[in-house]
């Protein structure tokens, strides 16, 4: 069970100290948005390069961008330890996942709430993680979509059938109130933005989420 706080809810003027505040987490989740794939704009490769220099923990890049075939390998080459692209945006996901892996990062694809997993099951041998979105991508602080839990179960069953160590990440509305149902459905990497950075102590929130998720491990 791993916790990946999203810095989308952090103070963008103080990202170094915001990363230090979650040093007890497994990953720092960095949401890259291009204002085209989603109606919001955050940060890109130059900022990720700077974050990599100061982050006490590995960086988990979630790319909500168009044309990831062109842009995603650059994040892996820069040193991001995990790079997730959206399957809806990828032209050649096998080639892209291989490019990310050969640059030394873990590769993952993400599914928006309206995207079915079944057509992409054959991609499992090419990736290290599948991200099941539990909100519409674009913004932090939205309500958790419990109707995505059957998809998490479906991915977990497919991973079991295929074998190998493929992680299942959930992202969006994950909090102390919702993390247990995600873990119970088969998720093992949990992104939480507002639940961590909105808490009085980010580090304590990470520990609480870790404990709650472990109850269903
Ligand atoms: C949404 C992002 C999430 C977001 C989660 O598009 O991918 O990572 O930061 O924020 P919360 O946990 O507040 O829903
Ligand atoms: Zn995200």
Concise overview:
By secondary structure, the protein is of the alpha/beta class.
Features of the shown structure:
single chain, 217 residues, alpha/beta, TIM Barrel, 8-stranded parallel sheet, 8 helices, globular, binds D-xylitol-5-phosphate, binds zinc ion
Commentary on this structure:
The protein is built from eight helices and eight strands. The protein has a single domain, classed as TIM Barrel, CATH 3.20.20.70. It has 217 residues and is α/β, with parallel strands linked by helices. Helix 6 links the parallel strand 7 (167-171) and strand 8 (189-192). Helix 3 packs parallel to helix 4 (93-102) and helix 6 (179-185) runs parallel beside helix 8. The protein starts with a strand and ends with a helix. The mean pLDDT is 98. The protein has helices at residues 15-20, 45-54, 68-78, 93-102, 149-162, 179-185, 194-197, 202-214, and strands spanning 2-5, 28-33, 59-64, 82-86, 106-111, 129-133, 167-171, 189-192. 35% of the residues lie in helices and 19% in strands. It binds D-xylitol-5-phosphate and zinc ion. D-xylitol-5-phosphate is lined by residues 6, 8-9, 29, 31, 62, 135, 137-142, 171-174, 191-195.
Please outline the major beta sheet.
8 strands, parallel
Give start-end ranges of low-pLDDT stretches: none
Order of helices and strands: EHEHEHEHEEHEHEHH
Q: In total, how many beta strands? A: 8
Summed over residues and divided by their number, the pLDDT gives a mean of 98
Helical fraction equals 25-40%
Query: What is the total number of structural domains?
Result: 1
- Looking at the overall shape, the CATH architecture is Alpha-Beta Barrel
CATH class: Alpha Beta
What is the CATH homology-level superfamily?
Answer: Aldolase class I
Bound compounds: D-xylitol-5-phosphate, zinc ion
